[in-house]
Amino acid sequence: MTTDHFNTFMEGLPVERKGPVAALIDALRSKLPEGFAEHSDGRMVHFSVPFSLYPDGYHCNPKSPLPFVSVASTKGQVSLHHMGLYAHPPLLEALKRDWESADLGKLNMGKGCVRFKRMAQLEAAIPTLVMTFERMTPQAWIGCYEAEVKR
Question: Residue 32: pLDDT above 90?
Fold first, then answer.
């Protein structure tokens, strides 16, 4: 991972987001199955399948590693972009069940993007998100990607 880009990302966060976003990234670092690689472009923090495991890279840009999870901070929210939620309906259904069981309030999401407008909700959701992080290995994501996304 490029430390300078990660530091640029973290320094650009509003003060009230720094702790919750750092906790989310720490959870990704410790709970994603082994094999995903972390990198940052200064605007987002990404966890991808490295070229050593998937040399084809991302079909939209083969010079980029296969994306899996990214964390972004925009003006109004922090977002967790999870390609597995987008491409693998059973993973999405598991997150919805876990979210409801944890009584985390309304799940604000698009196809594969979980949005957090309140940092207290993000912090409360991390244990539930961890269960989602642990459910898909790089090899499982490659298989899902090839079957459902890269056509």
Answer: yes
Asked if 9 and 40 count as a contact pair (C-beta separation under 8 A), the reply is yes
Note if the pTM is more than 0.85: yes
Total domains in the chain come to 1
Residue 151 domain-assigned (yes or no): no
Q: Long-range contacts for 51-54 (Cβ within 8 Å, ≥24 apart)?
A: 53/138, 53/139, 53/142, 54/138, 54/142
The beta-strand segments (E) located in the chain are 37-40, 44-49, 66-73, 78-82, 113-116
pLDDT 10s digits, 40-54:
988 899 999 999 999
- Considering the domain boundaries, does residue 18 fall inside one? yes
The phi and psi torsions of 44 (rounded to 5 degrees) equal: -145, 160
Q: Is residue 150, in this structure, part of any structural domain at all?
A: no
Average pLDDT, the chain: 95
The answer on pLDDT for 1 being more than 50 is: no
Say which amino acid occupies 115.
Answer: R
